[in-house]
Amino acid sequence: MVRANSMAKVHTDMREMETKPTRRELSDTKGILKQNREFLDFFWDIAKPDQDTRVTAIENLVRYLRESKKDDELKYTLKRLVEGLAATREASRPGFSLALSQVLQTFEEIPLQTVLDQIKERHNLQKASKKQKRNAAFGNLFGVLALSQSGRLSKEPRVILEAVQLLQSLAAFRMHVKDLPQKTIVDILTETPEAVFEEVLFDALQNDLTSAFSTPEQLHLLLVAMQKFPAVLKSKKMKKLLGSSKVVTKENLSKLTEILKTAAKSVKKDNMLPPVARDLMRVAVQEESFEIFWDEVVINKLLKDQAAPCSFLCYRLLGSALPLLSLGQIGYVLRGDVLKHYGAHVVSAQVPAKFKFAPEMQQYVSSFLESCCDPDKQFAVITGFTCLTNHGNPVVPSMWTVVQNLQPSVVLRYVDWLKDMFCCPKMDLCLDFSTKRQQENFDGKNWSKNCVQRLRQWIIARLASIAENPQVKKEEDLVMGIARFIFFHSFFDSKKPTIKIPETQSQLSVPLDDSMRNVIGSSFFGLLLQLSHLPVIGESPEAASLNEKHIRGVTSNGSLWISCLVQYADRLLNASVQVHQVRPFTEEQRSAWNRVLESVEDLRKKGNKTHSAETMAFQQLFLLLGINLFKAPEESLDLLEDLHNCLAKSQQKKQKKSAKEDSEPQWFDVLVDILLSLLSQPSRLMRNVANVVFKHICPHVTQKSLNSILQLLQPENINDDEEESAVVVVDEKHSIKKKSTKHKGEEEDEHSENKSTSSEDDSDSDEDEDEDDDLSEEEGEVDENLRLELMNVLMGQSALATEEDKSDEEEVSDEAMMQLDERISALFSEQKKRLQAKKDEKERMRKENTLVRDFKIKVLDLIEIFLMKQQESPLVFGIIEPLLSVIEYSMNSESGKQEQDFLRKTADIFRNKLCRAKRYYKNVSAMKEELHGLMERLLTRTRKLKESSVAAYYFSAVLYLVRVLKGGLCDDSATPAVGKCKKKHTEDKVEVTPSKQAMDLGCLDLTRVLTLFSDALKHFMTKRKSVFTGNMFMDLFIRFPIISGALLDTTMKYITEGVRSHQQGQACSLVLKVLQTREVCQSLTEVAWSDLIEQVLAQVIQCLKSISVFRVKVDHEKVVKCLELTRFLITTIQKQKLPISLKDILPVLQSLDQLQDFHRSLQQSDTYWSVMKLFGIFKPKKEKVKVAEEEQSKQNSQKKKKKGFLPDTKKRKNRKKQTVEEVNMMSKLSTEDDKITEEDGKKNIRKQKKSKRKALDEQSATPSKKIKGTNDKKHRQKKAKQKPGNTK
Question: One GO CC term of this entry (predicted)?
């Protein structure tokens, strides 16, 4: 509709253009446009809001004009684009301006002067009416902007002068165009040659340059001219213009401040630095007056202003000034009040609702470091921001990514500076500040100590982040130096400096306490974890080769990072003269350490020869437990002893073992227990190493080892009778070790701690209600006990009146009363402690359950690794039932977030890693009976389930077993009898040879399997509350056509014998899927296929005859599925020309159309008519009422009422004249109006008045005159029809 109106407007404009004498040269445009519709569409697309559409239309327009080479079309294009500069539609003005610039740039033969004259004439501000002045102003603005963007304006000085003058004349319309004219003048100046500026533009812009301190736009114009034309604006001219040869002077500081405040407020919503501020700072640097500008304007004026835009302007000036300043000026700026004020903003802007400037400042610093080539400036900036501290803690984050833009030499220098600040904190170098709350809680005694501790903690995190970040330009020596530094200060102290150990050369000015060493130790093990995933550093060929192989966690020579650190630790232990260990090893621990080194060396030599995964696994475990001796020596000793035993057993030669040796656990079983113990440790490094080692020993895992892992996943009620577990759960927060029959996991890292904390918080609301209920019950029980104890206390003090002593005159003494109060108080205090103890016990149990779930989630990683690495192992079959039991129990247990994560991960592993595995065990001939029995147990268990969602996983496991048995390699002797496996529809079915059947079935006992699935199908079709679903059998039929063909007869009878409509519909879908299967069709002869189609058709006819009423939605779904099967049958019969009669089904189908609510379902109706179309019967078309169509078109054609003008209905007209039709209509409506009740008439008085006005408006819009009141009566007639009880 909008397009039609726009087209009408264009044609109207064209007709007006023909009538005007001033535009006779375009009088033939109407004919041109009628001939070429494509040309006109370009202008519609240019005015559309979508930017891509506009750009595409402009490109097509320029290409079309270049190819057509028609002058009349080019003239019309210029006229149309000039007119569009003042359009009011959204995005029209920029679109036409860009199109005009592209046309002028392409066709250089068009003189710019002519175009400028057209712009002035078409958008004349003097001739424009008051309402059109705004559009005319925009037309002039976008017209000059188009000339500037064409790139030809600098070649025509006269046009430049007129364009600038035209822009200056728009100053009176600042309310509309704002500062766009001044910005356009600045853009023109940047492209104007110096000679043109001096000869042409200087005089025209002299007034603007003289009043530079009036507005930000005029000052920006002066600053741009000074930078662009320094030879023209020399000191003499500047002095003549401004009264001084410089811009930044003491006399102009107040004016500059006001201009900057105005500019800051103007870009408040844009979050950007005003261009005038950036250029003013650049000029201040050039005039060597930056210090005056920074101190007087920025610090003393802008920073002290409480307005947020002024503060953000100061921060942006700081960030943008870095590339302009010298080394000394950078140090001066980064030690001033602006940076301190910025730090206070960062600390206070932690509230989510507040605006955060830190990301913008990071972008400024990152851009400077990336573009700066001076190492000294880079070092000054990175250390300057590091020294900005809040009570000792640097404001910038420890993971600040700007460090990746530093040069390698600067990174090395920065790391050395951080190490020096750690050993000897120089708080006087830091720009420290405190918040108001910190000042209120100021503690002079511990202030210095806390500041040093916070600074050191940040430095350790900063060093670790530099080593971990692969984007930082560094060498291996730098990473190793950082790791050694952190390890040294975690567990050692320096006694005497030595060159061999660089870490001893820096003495600590402030000693480290135990809490700080624990923090550094945690950072060290976190760094080890990241180093295990770090790509090989360097650009050497060896490093490139290792990176191509995706090898992580090694140096360029192939050594593990942890191995290098173990060697460094051994060097420190041997240098007892220079180094002192904070927690010295005992003799047992030291011997264990030496034994670890010997074992690692033996494994390394052996690994160089064999390169076995087993050797690598033991080596990593020894290194991890060895380095863990420094953190947890007691736990590591036991694990190391078990690991040495495992290594010794694994290296023994194969020989005959005694019965005693056979009863002992194998080395890989013990190793699995060690890995499970590592998973229970609160360390991501332990978990990572355990997973890596388990990948290496997967081929050695036995059923016993796998059962020990699966046993930990079993629900707690299943393991009540099991032996006590050896897994120790460590609660990192309270440092308590517990043993329980329930297998408990634990937190391992900060990420998992946060995850468990969030899960605890999510479950607090639910558990609080349970706690309240329990407490109320406990209080009820306690009240009875408390009442008895209270009675005893009162009776002991004779304070309770008895039946024998009924005198009220005798009173208890004050001393006895005080004793009584003390006993009662003690009684209630003890009761309160009991309640609190029970509550604490319940909270402890809840936390233990959380740790158990976390540990189970970690154990699932081992199962996932085994399924990925050992898909062809027969041990996979032993995982099916345990995982299914976990899923079943979790589905019926609590629905906390942590439990849902555990269930989701278990289900994902079971479905994707097990059931959908691409490879599986092939040699199943020896265990086919066991697998068939497992299949029977799963289907039996499935029938007893209550949830179909759980049954789906059981059925998926059954299908997986069918796939394994069918694809397995079977011996000839184990081949099932062919006669037992045959399933005939008719006697004419093709016989399958024994060799072919054995090849197709593998080790699958078809008779046994068919019995199982037949029973399951019967259960689904005959039980009202069956857990089986149609999708399960659909999946079975799709994946195994041989089974679907054998179950076809069983499925076919349920089309009519299904217990409910849902089952009957599913039977139709299953039969349809079987008939569409290529294998089933190819296995039958033509006669057998024809008989099968006839049998199915008979079932369908019987099913359709049974349909009499539609009660629920399932009835419609059943009919849809039955009709889809019918459509396939009829299509097959007609295409293959089978000798089957369709006379019986046609009356049945026709009878369906007569049923009530049959066509209520749109899908059912469409399917029905698609079937009837095969008989040549088409869906009847509904006749459209012409009267209603005409009324609708009349309503759409009515024009909108114009605002601000007197409507035609208000004008005096001759209302006495009436046509014969109107008189008849009036009489008819009057008779109908009499039937309306009096009560309805009173309610519709106001609506009648509105309808009268509407009728008058319609009367003015139509050519024939209507009498007053006609539409009013029509309205009342319509209302009367809608009222209940009123008849026409």
Answer: nucleolus
